[in-house]
Amino acid sequence: MEKPRSEVVLYGTWASAYCTRVQLALKLKGIAYEYVEEDLTNKSESLLHYNPVHKKVPVLVHKGKPIAESLVILEYIDDCWNNSPNLLPLDPYQRAKVRFWANFYDQKIIPSSYAVVLSKGKEQENAIKEFNELLTVLEEGIEKDFSTKFPFNGEREALGFLDIVVGAHACNYRALEEAVAVVVEPKEHPAFLSWVTKLKEYPLMKETLPPHDKLAARMRERFSLAPKRNIATL
User: Fold this and answer.
1) pLDDT tens digits along 137-158
2) What span, in angstroms and rounded, lies between the C-alpha atoms of 103 and 50?
3) Nearest to residue 165, comparing CAs of 103, 215, 112?
4) Using CA atoms, how far apart are residues 106 and 94, in angstroms rounded to an integer?
5) What is the reported pTM?
6) Boundaries of each GST N-terminal domain copy (predicted)?
7) Residue 232: strand, helix, or coil
8) Could you tell me if 71 and 17 are in contact, meaning their C-beta atoms sit under 8 angstroms apart?
9) Does 4 sit behind a cis peptide bond, omega within 30 degrees of 0 on the bond before it?
10) Residue 225 pLDDT > 80, yes or no?
11) Pairing of strands 59-62, 8-12
């Protein structure tokens, strides 16, 4: 197994939103790191060594010690490098609320988007409906818990924990629509789409997200889909 050359090493893959999260956090904190691109069809000895339980990316190796799972890694980065900007709020109650909605996004929203991709016809229509219902819960919950101060609205200088968690995935939604179907109903979710638009315009997000065309092609290839046509763009 080849030894890492840097104190901080990220094992990831370019198309993974979970890996994008970690890259965003590292860049936001100004942490120098080595990036190792993994081929998930032929996983490296290093990846299997550092993440023997799940055998997947992302894995952050800090001073030879591995940390797995994107949400865990984000918290580790915030705790270990406690310089500004902080990813999580300092207030314990607000931190708990951010963690709650981050977990909701990962446990509810993302799996429901997979259900859309893996279905067709009436089943897909039902999956899209369920996805939008969950998105409504997210929007209403964020509005209730954070009021107008949260999430990122273009006025703050830096992204926060929930911006990173949601943005790394949701900012690619046009690629999903181009490859699969229109998933987010614009008239039903103006607040969510406004948030995502502002996140996409943030320079660090632009720099870190995978290329749109390359990602859409990857999605079509992965799910054996023909290119979609007449998809509206923001």
Assistant:
1) 999 999 899 875 555 654 556 8
2) 24
3) 103
4) 19
5) 0.90
6) 6-85
7) coil
8) no
9) no
10) no
11) antiparallel
